[in-house]
Design goal:
17 strands, homodimer, Rossmann fold, Dna Ligase, domain 1, D-amino Acid Aminotransferase, Chain A, domain 1, 9-stranded antiparallel β-sheet, globular, 29% helix, 4-stranded parallel β-sheet, alpha+beta
Chain lengths: 363, 363
């Protein structure tokens, strides 16, 4: 096994940040790098990636193409990701060539719902009840342990509700498991939450930590519809959310921005739904409402720069522009800060952009 | 003479904004276009232009290369500028191929200090006293009309104090004119100002208008050091500054962002120092302090989109990072929103980046 490369000093202005994944998150990361005088190189498995429009340094090749990954690593000073699902051996290969941030352990833990939730519980933090399901028999047994309805989720590669199925009986749980073609899964109990929230935070290699104010999030059809900051979280809940993010980031020896999705219970308690080891849709409002956005914060952390100030200087509502909603770009542009991602096709459920509306700071 | 192309409908997302000039202003314009889902194509007369780092669509060729300008125009939906000094026939050539915004007349008037000041006076607006100087004899005659010290300025191609010389006698005025190799010039009387300010504003093709709050500006060695908003302008002065910008933009049938540099007299009156038919250094604070920056506002105007909201939601101080000051990037990054422009050499007096510090909104 090759040695892992580490970053011993900050990437200076003019240096190259490698970004694996060229979707909207990669695009906004590349633009944030440019603000700081850093260059962005983007690696994506398809042509016409949104991020390819904002940098001349780009490679389109499969994520398991060893030679292309090697060539990409050669032009980069440090490598990061817009998504957590890169094959583990591709990450290991990159890490043998150039510093990779966040590190492989954080990516591996969060690639798998079971290991992620087990990790969270090991920190003494609350999650929804969950049980591993590896067989049809497991599915029924697991359901019997739940308090009524539950959700079967594949352990890997789920996002925006993909690889998830709500079940209300042992038989349904078994059918869902078969529908997932027997992919290793977990059965997760429902949390009786009042609303959803998230916390987006950054940790630098020196252990310094900065969290943005946690927004309240509203989902529709398993896709984030809207993030509101300040939302319904109390000051104490907001502080607790930031402390949760810090505990997780510290335990992972994390470098970069991560997001923790939370359930805010009717009893006021916070339970952890999911960790995203990357910038997050619920942090897009930071572009307008903070002097340092989540994207710049991530670039600062991975490049070894000092973290920026996460202070919020306006209230904000971020709303996703989904599918054909983007056709109304002209009227959307009239009503707030519109971001469009340069995607060619407005497919159903596809995130085409987002809108942020600011209001004077209230708290 | 070829017909001038006009924009009959907005450039839709995915369209291409052509930007002539690849310095920091072109770079920040390109990034603003990308936010809106528009592509930026950059034309610059040297390789390694800052703006070339933020788009794959780029041409490096002389500004009078007819064939390259033609090729550039072919990939663009509309063309704009980061600077006002493109040769007039190059502008005319581009305008015969694709819509050019702002239009040729605005550029021509503002390329020449004498025609610019005459135009401003024709609107009933105040300027410093000025006299055209076209001969050594003129220089002495002009000085005699001034009240003590004056500044000889070449009519064309001056910026950041270049092509300017302070003179305190008729003989010095003559010597300065000879030093400028007899280039057509103006002699400008000093204005006894309390401080300097500027107003950055946008006008759309439909006549709609939006002005940012005018900052107070502090210059050092003829280069902008710092812009402060709110500065020392009263509400009435701020409103007057915006009205001046509107009068100028309307009279020029202007499309895009323009900046008007102002002297705020000890008597409280505003005199116009200079018009810049483009985004302006004194508007950089809008990136953090407004939901729509001057760069996005310019792109919106030239692309035929609705103008954005120029409301300011924080107080701001913008400070340029000049020459070797950029070496301290790590400590600068600690103290605010740092922008670096990707320039390779930190030459003396060269603008390498800028810093914006935000404070809670006071007025």
């Amino acid at each position: 096994m090759s040695e892992i490369k580490t970053l011993t000093k900050p990437v200076p202005p003019g240096g190259v940040i490698g970004i694996i994944g060229g979707g909207q998150l990669g695009r906004m990361l590349a633009m944030a790098a440019a603000r700081l005088g850093l260059k962005a190189a983007v690696y994506n498995d398809e042509n016409h990636a949104p991020a390819f429009q904002v940098t001349p340094l780009q490679i389109a090749a499969p994520y398991d193409d060893r030679n292309m990954l090697t060539g990409f690593a050669e032009i980069c000073d440090v490598i990061t990701f817009e998504f957590e699902n890169l094959p583990s051996d591709a990450i290991a290969h990159l890490a043998s060539l150039k510093p990779v941030r966040p590190g492989q352990r954080a990516l591996e833990i969060t690639q798998d719902r079971f290991s992620e939730k087990s990790f969270v519980q090991s920190l003494g933090l609350k999650t929804a009840p969950f049980v591993a399901v590896t067989s049809v028999q497991d599915a029924a047994t697991a359901f019997a342990q739940m308090d009524g309805a539950a959700i079967l989720k594949t352990r890997r590669l789920g996002y925006d509700g993909k690889g998830q199925s709500k079940v209300t009986s042992g038989a349904e749980a078994q059918a869902a498991f078969q529908h997932f073609k027997g992919a290793p899964s977990i059965l997760e109990g429902f949390v009786d939450f009042a609303f959803e929230a998230s916390v987006v935070a950054a940790r630098a290699a020196d252990g310094s930590f900065a969290a943005f104010d946690p927004p309240e999030n509203i989902h529709e059809n398993h896709i984030l519809r809207r993030s509101i900051v300040p939302g319904r979280l109390s000051k104490a809940q907001s502080d607790e959310a930031k402390a949760i993010a810090k505990a997780i980031a510290d335990a992972l020896d994390y470098v970069g921005v991560l997001a923790v999705e939370l359930f805010v219970g009717k009893d006021g308690s916070l339970a952890i739904n999911e960790i995203a080891p990357r910038v997050h849709n619920s942090g897009h409002w930071t572009i307008e409402a903070c002097a340092c956005s989540q994207f710049e914060q991530h670039i600062r952390a991975v490049a070894g720069w000092p973290l920026g100030d996460p202070a919020r200087h306006a209230d904000a509502v971020m709303e996703n522009v989904i599918g054909a909603e983007a056709d109304a770009w002209e009227s959307l542009a009239r009503s707030g800060a519109l971001h469009l991602y340069g995607k060619r096709e407005a497919r159903l459920g596809r995130k085409m952009g987002h809108m942020t509306r600011l209001k004077p700071l209230t708290k």
